[in-house]
Design goal:
Order of helices and strands of chain A: EHEHEHEHEHEEEEEHEEEEEH
Structural class of chain A: alpha/beta
CATH class of the largest domain in chain A: Alpha Beta
Strand order of the largest sheet of chain A: 2-1-3-4-5
Number of strands of chain A: 15
Number of domains of chain B: 1
CATH architecture of the largest domain in chain A: 3-Layer(aba) Sandwich
Shape of chain B: elongated
Radius of gyration of chain A: 29 Å
Largest interface: A-B, 15 and 19 residues
CATH topology of the largest domain in chain A: Rossmann fold
Number of strands of chain B: 0
Strand content of chain B: under 5%
Distance between the termini of chain B: 19 Å
Number of domains of chain A: 2
Largest sheet of chain B: none
Number of helices of chain B: 5
Number of helices of chain A: 7
Strand content of chain A: 25-35%
Helix content of chain B: over 70%
Order of helices and strands of chain B: HHHHH
Oligomer: heterodimer
Helix content of chain A: 25-40%
Distance between the termini of chain A: 51 Å
Radius of gyration of chain B: 14 Å
Structural class of chain B: mainly alpha
Largest sheet of chain A: 5 strands, parallel
């Protein structure tokens, strides 16, 4: 974790600097003697963790937290025990160190910061899975689940109890209905142009009266669906 | 009168002589500066700023192992915020003891 220390007292900065040096997962990238200096630095260099003194001339640590956008994790460092309750009002504050800091207490604070990082990382990992799922779907063919990217689909065509999914390189036949797959496909990308056809509007080559050309396939466009298709076009 | 010690400095620096020297150098430089600032604020009856200086000095008091003196400083800081200077003399005695100790480090 890249970290900075903000404290107007040189001794406090030196002590934290030394403790950071003794902690392999931490890298001290900047020491700031006042909040303004830190704000300027953070505008250019995002960090993972801030050791922040509460009592500084002109600008308290809490003022500082309220000033910066998306504050990283913060460990408060102060001579005053009385700010503990206020500290818990800020989600970014992971711990509260009272000067003079001991090595043991410092390491506990780092463990808390790491724990918070894991929570954040785990949340963002879940988000990534959800986002990934938003870009693809799976079809079941011969007991195999095959992943298909939405963007790779050109056309979906209904044929009886089956649908044909035509992608850039392959065609798949799946036991399903147009209605079912229509609900799965992103509405901003796909449009039902006929009761038997759903097209990827990004794949349109040209449009002629009642049909669109996608790849080498000419797809019929019903009169009822034509106005919606025309709305989607970026017409000159 | 409670006497300062360098236990915290020794404990923190361990075998790291370079860091120990750095801490002592900072103490020798920063303590007189902080005391001078406090004295100036007191001279101008600027109790609010003097309280902030006392607050800052509390770190030096505690890292020199002055537990009872820390309590006096804490009380004096509160007093100053209420425009009272009852503990001024006690606090300044602590500062003198600290300065003497640091000079001899």
């Amino acid at each position: 974790m890249n970290c900075i220390v903000i404290d107007d007292e040189e001794m406090a900065r030196a002590i934290i600097g030394q403790m950071v040096e003794n902690t392999p997962q931490l890298t001290l990238v900047q020491e700031c003697s006042n909040a303004m200096q830190a704000i300027k630095y953070l505008n250019q260099h995002p960090v993972d963790l801030i050791f922040l003194d509460i009592h500084m001339p002109d600008f308290t640590g809490f003022d500082f937290i309220q000033t910066i956008k998306n504050p990283p994790k913060v460990i408060l460092v102060t001579s005053d025990k009385n700010f503990a309750i206020e500290a818990f009002e800020y989600e970014c504050i992971v711990d509260y160190l009272v000067k003079p800091i001991t090595e043991d207490r410092f390491q506990k604070a780092i463990q808390k910061a790491n724990a918070k990082q894991l929570t954040v990382a785990s949340t963002s990992a879940n988000k990534t899975v959800a986002e990934d799922n938003a870009n693809e779907f799976y079809i079941n063919i011969d007991r195999r689940l095959i992943k298909i990217e939405f963007a790779a689909v050109n056309i979906v065509e209904a044929k009886g109890d089956y649908i044909h999914i035509k992608t850039e390189g392959k065609n798949y036949v799946v036991h399903s209905t147009v209605k079912k797959i229509e609900d799965k496909l992103p509405k901003d990308l796909f449009l039902k142009v006929h009761r038997s056809f759903i097209i990827n509007t990004k794949k349109i080559i040209d449009i002629e009266d009642n049909s669109v050309l996608i790849g080498k396939d000419v797809i019929p466009v019903s009169r009822a669906n034509r106005p919606e298709l025309m709305k989607r076009l970026n017409l000159l | 009168m409670e006497q300062p010690n360098n236990h915290y400095i020794e404990q923190l620096s361990g075998d790291n002589a370079e860091f120990k020297a750095k801490m002592i150098a900072i103490l020798k430089k920063e303590l007189p500066e902080e005391i001078a600032l406090y004295q100036n604020q007191m001279h101008h009856n600027d109790w609010a700023k003097a309280a902030a200086s006392v607050h800052k000095l509390k770190h030096k008091i505690s890292l020199l192992g002055l537990d009872k003196s820390y309590y006096i400083a804490e009380q004096f800081e509160i007093q100053l915020k209420d425009n009272s200077t009852v503990l001024q003399s006690d606090f300044e005695t602590i500062l003198n003891v600290m300065q003497q100790f640091v000079q001899e480090l």
